[in-house]
């Protein structure tokens, strides 16, 4: 990728071709590179702090009902702006011509193929229902309504320390 130059948006490369003529594999490589950077971002304390503060601020407002209150839209828009700004600022340090709108368009094209934490976070930024589910999951955790499955897990050694002891 050293001979490729990112042009005016995050998914264009310097091939002398228009964006629609850029080979799909080149777009996919750039997309994968950006996803890799977002995965790095998700591991940073700064991102966790922003998300945790946001969830703490609003978890009591969302209710586990089908009805969506008007205030939910304002909260979703605030979250969208906060997280999107954080992601864009992070990526523009690495990819100076990064364009979130082009990236989100390509993300929506590939939505059916995507899986994993990074895509859950990105879905919460672009999809209201994913965002609401994230807040309701946090609410359930705060209220102790999430079943703790760790009590059903048992770790047992397959070696017997007495019979495996070497007496030589």
UniProtKB/TrEMBL annotation:
The keyword Transmembrane does not apply. This is ADP-ribosylation factor-like protein 2-binding protein. Belongs to the ARL2BP family. One of its GO terms (biological process) is maintenance of protein location in nucleus. It is found in: Cytoplasm, Cytoskeleton, Cilium basal body; Cytoplasm, Cytoskeleton, Microtubule organizing center, Centrosome; Cytoplasm; Nucleus. Plays a role as an effector of the ADP-ribosylation factor-like protein 2, ARL2. It comes from the Eukaryota. Residues 31-143 form the BART domain. One of its GO terms (cellular component) is nucleus. InterPro entries: ARL2BP (IPR038849), BART_dom (IPR023379), BART_sf (IPR042541). The keyword Ribosomal protein does not apply. Its main location: cytoplasm. Keywords: Cell projection, Cilium, Cytoplasm, Cytoskeleton, Mitochondrion, Nucleus. It comes from Vespula vulgaris (Yellow jacket).
């Amino acid at each position: 990728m050293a001979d490729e130059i990112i042009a005016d948006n995050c998914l264009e490369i310097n091939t002398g071709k228009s964006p629609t003529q850029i080979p799909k594999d080149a777009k996919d490589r750039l997309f994968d590179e950006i996803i890799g950077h977002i995965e790095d971002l998700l591991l940073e304390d700064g991102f966790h702090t922003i998300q945790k503060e946001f969830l703490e601020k609003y978890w009591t407002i969302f209710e586990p009902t089908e009805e969506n209150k008007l205030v939910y839209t304002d909260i979703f828009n605030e979250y969208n702006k906060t997280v999107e700004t954080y992601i864009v600022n992070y990526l523009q340090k690495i990819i100076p011509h990064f364009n979130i709108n082009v990236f989100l368009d390509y993300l929506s094209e590939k939505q059916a193929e995507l899986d994993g934490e990074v895509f859950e976070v990105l879905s919460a930024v672009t999809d209201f229902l994913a965002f609401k589910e994230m807040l309701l999951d946090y609410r359930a955790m705060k209220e102790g309504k999430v079943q703790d499955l760790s009590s059903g897990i048992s770790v047992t050694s397959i070696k017997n320390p007495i019979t495996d002891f070497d007496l030589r």
